[in-house]
Amino acid sequence: MTLRLYDTSARQTRDFVPLEPGCVSIYLCGATVQAAPHIGHIRSGLNFDIMRRWFAYRGFAVTFVRNVTDIDDKIIAKSADQGRPWWAIGYENERAFNDAYDALGCLPPTNEPRATGHIPEMVEMMRTLIDRGHAYAADGNVYFDVHSYDGYLALSNQELDNLRQPEGEGETGKRDPRDFAMWKAAKPGEPSWATPWGAGRPGWHLECSAMAHKYLGSAFDIHAGGVDLVFPHHENEIVQSRAYGDDFAAYWTHNAWVTMSGEKMSKSLGNSVLASEMVKRWRPIVLRYYLGTPHYRSTIEYSEESLREAETAFARIEGFLHRVTELTGDIEPASEVPPAFAEAMDDDLGVPQALAVVHNTVRQGNSALTADDKESAAARCAETRAMLGVLGLDPMDPSWGASAGGAHGAQADLHGVVDSLVSLVLEQRQAARQRKDYAAADAIRDQLQRSGLVIEDTPAGPRWELAPGQARVPGSGPGPSRDFRNTH
Ligand SMILES: Nc1ncnc2c1ncn2[C@@H]1O[C@H](COP(=O)(O)OP(=O)(O)OP(=O)(O)O)[C@@H](O)[C@H]1O
Ligand SMILES: [Zn+2]
């Protein structure tokens, strides 16, 4: 069976043929660390984490590079606004991204290069492109001459004649408005790096071309990113790298957006939910299920209701695993996934179809439990764990720690118990307030505070969380973690 991938460049699904047998090299455009991530930002990291896991399952040695763009206009603007160095803002947000990737169980990349650590490589690339007549310097900027290379815009299937490019701020001296900046001259007071063409900072496209070359060589298998990166970012990467002499990526894969009311989830539109908030409100493994199981090329329309549905669906799977292991003791994942699951994954990472196999297996396992057929139930449990493992969704995998319910749902169960006890006590406090027995109401609140809980009255009702400095639930591991917090 051959693994097939939808290649944006070919506009069709193609058999995956690696450049080097048994190996796959993947470059994913990573975060621009100008703000903490919303769940839309995390989706590509998660989708391509599933891709690399599937390649690994299929026996490939995977090299996975995901860069960090740690300098850009918004970082510079924030630095000026806040009076803090650009690198402090970048690093703070880089950590927020990594916290979110970790919380959602994304494996760390093989390499995670930062743009500003690769200025010499970028200078070398520009020098070569200028020498070959593909790029030119003007007013301290370096531009790529889009007329100098045939085949520009093939990925997005556009014609140069129809292309209109708005002029970027400070981008003076262009020979053609469609030429794009590889390097941007520094304005007074901005962070800058010296080059033979003047002090400045890298353009985003150049960063990825230079880092992909350094870590993956002149040809690699798959370039991945969000669908909005096809143009201009990926087109500009391609033309720079090819003009430089690299074959660059053999396949191009792009994930779709997370939307809200049909619009792209976006900070500037004000319709975003921070990943750090989401992992407090939902179990990280449920969030992974929610964001990782729709097909990577399908839009996810965010809603609380669909999250609750994901929670219920996942609980059905998890409940089965727990029921079996309570009966039989621990069961290891099977060494192979069922053929129908593998077939779905081989077909352009058909996770929804693969997940249908998981649910089907769970159904069969539950029937076996009902029929008291322990052996068959145990076999279905082993298969389910193997399939979930490939998706990074096995709640019994120790990497989830207790937060996924790894220790047989200990933390999740405990959270539920604490939550219902607190809600009971809060109802009594509410009742005391309604009968104007404020002394009793305050006594209840004081008692809760002594127990280490902070109660806040909000328009949505009283809300509780652990007082600062309170230990998390015993047994919660260093992996994905979750605050105890709730609204009643
Ligand atoms: N809603 C989303 N769904 C999927 N991917 C997204 C989403 N928003 C952003 N991304 C990915 O993250 C990258 C960085 O996004 P971008 O800086 O445009 O984020 P944003 O939240 O839309 O920011 P802004 O509010 O400043 O427009 C995008 O190129 C895209 O690949
Ligand atoms: Zn990139």
Automatic annotation (TrEMBL):
Binds 1 zinc ion per subunit. Zn(2+) binds at C29, C208, H233, E237. It catalyses: tRNA(Cys) + L-cysteine + ATP = L-cysteinyl-tRNA(Cys) + AMP + diphosphate. GO terms for molecular function: cysteine-tRNA ligase activity. A motif ('HIGH' region) lies at residues 31-41. Its cofactor is Zn(2+). Keywords: Aminoacyl-tRNA synthetase, ATP-binding, Cytoplasm, Ligase, Metal-binding, Nucleotide-binding, Protein biosynthesis, Zinc. Monomer. Belongs to the class-I aminoacyl-tRNA synthetase family. This is Cysteine--tRNA ligase. It comes from Streptomyces gossypii. The lineage of its organism: Bacteria, Bacillati, Actinomycetota, Actinomycetes, Kitasatosporales.
